[in-house]
Design brief:
The complex is a heterodimer of chains A (160) and B (574). Chain A has 160 residues and is α+β, with helices and mostly antiparallel strands. Chain A is built from 8 helices and 4 strands. Chain A has a 4-stranded mixed β-sheet, covered by helices on one side. In chain A, strand 3 and strand 4 form a beta hairpin. Chain B has 3 domains: 90 residues, Ubiquitin-like (UB roll) (Roll), CATH 3.10.20.740; 79 residues, Alpha-Beta Plaits (2-Layer Sandwich), CATH 3.30.70; 352 residues, Rossmann fold. The longest helix of chain B is centred in the middle third of the chain and has 21 residues. The two termini of chain B are 43 Å apart. The chains are: A alpha+beta (160), B alpha/beta (574).
Chain lengths: 160, 574
């Protein structure tokens, strides 16, 4: 038994145990294990990373290095809705920065952060391939184009 | 071994096939400037300062990681090479705080040296500076990521030599840092405070916590009686911080310098090293005769103690309960010495000079207050003492040789060899063998236990008992040993473990740089100190005898138990 969670990891880590079992003894298992663990828990908590380290016999410092290297991994809980504001060239020219500022102001968080109620996570992207609609942002899988600062509050109310 | 022939700057060289270009050049006396490269650590090829031209290769190659091959032609000093090196260093400096004049590593910094060697007079780029917070929450080490050049040496010494894996590269691109997991402070992770990272850091990114200011203040306070103890390994290394060659024995000059700095009494940790032998030796005899926990393992090295408490708490009973010499000394200064000298212990400030950064953390452990006060108030490393001597303007090389003060400055050759790996074992054997057999040893040199190998074993015949011993240095080797003990494979009676390579003489508080030759030279000097001692067995130390006869009673007695022994407990950092 590990000591990472006061001994009740059986309940807490059922899904993780299954993932680890699937990759047991496999070389190069770390990244797929991290990906599947993140799918299961939404993000990679310290406890989850420590548990993975113990089972794969990889130092936690190194796993932290891997997790912070790839932008696909997240160390903090993510919002239910992911906002991606485009900061690519076309959007930049058409005022993408002002859109980002409007979202930041509306949600009172900065890019890369999540609202305390876990409703939104705000990120920036370099291009989403919808330059004709610039400036543009995505919320989850919805694309919102030809944005102005004034449109932001109303768009965000659609997502709970 | 397969050999290849290559040409470096027109010189024919025959080198092993496995060599790198940098190693091949070194073999023929050609020094290629380098920065992240460290001869005792896996090369990283990170900084690109060591670039050279190889005929036929695309672009310049990093010689520290580029393997040799038959017929290779290398040029190390062309215009292109020199310009590339300069550019690399300029780019590093562009992101560097450049606060050299007030940096703890000023004049002992590899980045500064390479900038000077390459003749950099102007930094053409104005780069962004990192804005990382400084990690100074632990008693031993200070980490300033803003000065880090990402060479990776600390990561490697911590993982490959010490097996602790505290550090890793984190993040990416310009945001890359070298940090413990989750960017925690060293006090929050399983760090033993051994300080090896600080000794290999090329810049001021990891340094010992500087306690010199507090000591200066105590020295200038007329109401304080300031006493100092000096660890065995300091006397063979301090000279290096003051321009002398590695292996210079500077005991007498160091004593003179400490008096000049204003210490009221200059004592020697070797005295309590001898005392440690009597307590620990008696404990060993007791464990051997009364079925105690074996193997018994030494407890002098605080990095090692942290390691067991952090990683192997189930094996704590194997540790000798004897305190380290530093802490025995601290406990006696504010009791025995205070009584004898008629000084109020509240007025005593007890300072120690140690080759070690973990000693700083040991001194502030809550158990280390058996005198009723903090037993050791301030711990300075060899490097810090070197800086104080410079600050006072003392011309060290011209100092007369002076003697330690009595009685806590009286010691034996057995005490001084504590500074080398195998020394505690040898000192203990000299005493335990004579006590157990009841007769004097013919030879007191136990050559089997000396040397620098990570793990050494010996069988010593004492009377009709064959004592099996092991001597271990570095924490990665200690881990192997503890695994064997845990599985029941190890049948030793007595084991000495030192956290640092070579023992205390290679400690985390010792002068920078420390290479394997440096350690050899310091070890040679330590054994010289032993040979030239008039008394070479701890149990023959007259001051220790007097301490027992007039005050302490007997080894493992009540007073000893209270002042000189301790207990260990699991630490939960990870």
């Amino acid at each position: 038994m590990c000591d990472c969670c006061g001994g009740n990891h059986e309940k807490k880590f059922v899904q993780l145990e299954a993932i680890l079992k699937k990759y047991q003894g496999m070389k190069g298992a770390l990244i797929p294990v991290l990906q599947e663990a993140q799918d299961a828990y939404g993000y990679l908590s310290k406890e989850v990373i420590e548990h993975i380290g113990e089972h794969l016999d990889i130092p936690v410092s190194q796993i932290y290095g891997v997790v912070t290297f790839y932008s696909q991994f997240h160390l903090n809980p993510r919002g239910r809705n992911i906002i991606r504001v485009c900061q690519g060239t076309a959007c930049h020219v058409r005022g993408g920065k002002a859109i980002l500022e409007a979202v930041q102001k509306q949600l009172n968080i900065k890019a890369g952060q999540t609202t305390p109620d876990l409703r939104f996570t705000l990120e920036t992207v370099a291009c989403i391939g919808a330059c004709g609609l610039a400036p543009v942002m995505m919320v989850n899988d919805d694309t919102h184009g030809r944005l102005t600062q004034e449109l932001i509050p109303e768009i965000l109310t659609k997502y709970s | 071994m397969d050999m290849v022939n290559i040409t470096i700057d027109g010189k024919q060289v025959r080198v092993p096939k496995t060599a790198t270009v940098l190693e091949a050049a070194k073999a023929v006396g050609i020094k290629i400037p380098s920065l992240c490269y460290h001869p005792e650590l896996r090369p990283e090829g990170a900084c690109r300062v060591c670039v050279v031209e190889v005929a036929g290769a695309r672009g310049l190659v990093a010689s520290c990681v580029y393997p040799v091959s038959e017929g290779m032609e290398v040029r190390t000093t062309t215009q292109q090479v020199r310009e590339a090196r300069k550019m690399v260093v300029e780019l590093l400096l562009a992101n560097h705080p450049q606060d050299c004049l007030s940096c703890q590593r000023n004049l002992n910094c590899e980045l500064q040296t390479i900038a000077s060697d390459l003749g950099i007079r102007k930094i053409r780029f104005d780069g962004e500076k990192k804005q990382c917070s400084i990690d100074a929450e632990n008693p031993s080490l200070v980490r300033d990521q803003n000065k880090c050049i990402l060479c990776g040496r600390c990561i490697k010494v911590c993982s490959d030599v010490q097996g602790m894996n505290v550090y890793s590269f984190a993040n990416r691109g310009f945001s890359t840092t070298v940090v413990p997991a989750f960017n925690q402070g060293l006090h929050q992770v399983a760090c033993t405070y051994c300080g090896q990272c600080a000794t290999v850091c090329p810049t001021g990114a990891i340094v010992e916590k500087d306690d010199t200011q507090a000591v200066w203040e105590a020295l200038s306070d007329p109401n304080k009686h300031v006493v100092v103890q000096t660890a065995p390994a300091v006397r063979v290394a301090l000279g290096e911080t003051l321009g002398m060659a590695p292996g210079s024995v500077v005991t007498g000059k160091m004593v003179a310098a400490l008096r000049k700095l204003g210490f009221d009494k200059v004592f020697d940790t070797d005295f309590t090293a001898d005392l440690t032998i009597l307590e620990e030796g008696s404990e060993l005899i007791d464990r051997l005769q009364n079925g105690g926990k074996l193997p018994m393992i030494t407890s002098c090295s605080p990095g090692w103690i942290n390691f067991v408490e952090l990683v192997y708490p189930d094996l704590l009973e194997h540790l000798s309960t004897a305190k380290s010499p530093q802490q025995m000394f601290g406990a006696l200064v504010k009791t025995y010495y205070a009584e004898k000298a008629g000084i109020d212990p509240a007025q005593i400030v007890s300072v120690s000079i140690m080759p070690c950064t973990a000693k700083k953390a040991e001194a502030v452990r809550e158990e280390m207050r058996s005198s009723g006060y903090q037993d050791v108030d301030y711990v300075l490393t060899t490097r810090e003492l070197g800086r104080m001597i410079k600050e006072a303007g003392i011309e060290f090389a011209n100092l007369p040789v002076e003697e330690y003060d009595a009685p806590l400055g009286i010691s034996t050759g057995a005490g001084v060899i504590f500074g080398a790996t195998g020394g505690v074992m040898e000192a203990a054997l000299r005493t335990v063998a004579e006590i157990l057999s009841g007769k004097e040893l013919d030879s007191i040199d136990f050559n089997d236990v000396r040397g620098m190998d990570g793990v050494r074993e010996a069988k010593i015949l004492i009377g009709d008992l064959t004592v099996k011993v092991a001597i271990v240095n570095t924490l990665s080797c200690a881990r192997k040993l503890l695994e064997k003990i845990r599985s029941g494979e190890a049948d030793y009676h007595f084991v000495e473990v030192m956290a640092c390579p070579g023992g205390c003489l290679g400690g985390g508080g010792q002068p920078i740089p420390t290479y394997s030759e440096t350690r050899q030279q310091r070890a040679k000097a330590i054994y010289e100190c032993d040979y030239t001692s008039t008394i070479r067995k701890s149990h023959q130390n007259p001051a220790v005898k007097e301490l027992y006869d007039t005050w302490l009673g007997k080894p493992l007695g009540d007073k000893s138990h209270h002042l000189l022994h301790t207990h260990y407990k699991q630490q939960n950092r990870k």
